[in-house]
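Action item from last week, closing it out:
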Amino acid sequence: MRPVTDPAPAPIRAAGCVLWRRSAGGGIEVALVHRPKYDDWSHPKGKLHLGEPHDAAAVREVREETGMECVLGHALPTARYLTEGGRAKIVRYWIAEAVRGRFVPNDEVDAVAWLAPPEARVRLTGEPDRTLLDEALVTLPAR
């Protein structure tokens, strides 16, 4: 008889956005969030609520983490990786234009930075987030 093993836990499902807006000078700026728990700069993202569609979660997470209402654009590549605990995580991303709102620091995000794409690329902590920004820049309005 073979021993019974526990199946692997279901992947963590999440959604997020490369959030952008037009700058006063006519170019674009990208919003990055600082998460004090990880002391990193990344794109706004978070876990889905039970039964929540990915696109709705992306809009909700942008609002919760940046205070901004946004309009989703096209989908970006999906990120797949293992968390520090070894659990699979799948994050679906979109480009999203910020249309209104105001940031208020909270437990998850203590700062939001609106940066020109080259500065945003340097500020991002993780290489996968830089790659995601590069993918978004292919279709964002001219800078």
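Closing note: DSSP finds three helices and seven strands in the chain.
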